[in-house]
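re: ur question from earlier - yeah i can do the single chain one, its not a big deal. heres the input i used so u can compare w yours
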Amino acid sequence: GTITGCNFADNTASENEQYYIEDTDGGPIHFNGGAIYLTGWYCNLTNNNFKRNAGKEGGAFYCNGLYDSLDNCYFAENTAEYGGAIYIGRGSYNNITNSNFTQNSAKNGAAVCHISENVNLVNCDFTGNTASESGGAFSCWGENSNVIGCSFKENIAKYAGGAVEWLNTNGFAI
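and the output i got, formated as tokens:
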């Protein structure tokens, strides 16, 4: 599917303790992706704006799919526990290009947090993002990922990786 030219503002995925919801695999849904929650294959997001969205994992966008791409998107003031703007779960082959991340916040990975593999960040700008623990802009907990031609300015993490926290063994290019 494709999502192009949309604005997502002030959306929240929040937990209501009265309900227990299971996904199609029988596991619990953890109220992720304040604007978009995606599982599946081949999703393209282009020229979209995400502002002031909130969720537990992925304040604006939660991705647990294969072959997804984000191009020329703007993420500002989104909040989450993991991945203030974007959280990438078990999916692989995700590309994020020509996108801007400004003033997002999270415990880990203030702009982007991923536990996947084969994630590429290309020509992205990260400015003024804040992590209360680690990964002021980006937390990489997966493998075979790359950061290419990106700009990091005034990002903050309390403990580790003011701009980038990298906890894998393969792939690293800035």
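The first strand starts at residue 2 and ends at 4. not sure if urs matches, ping me
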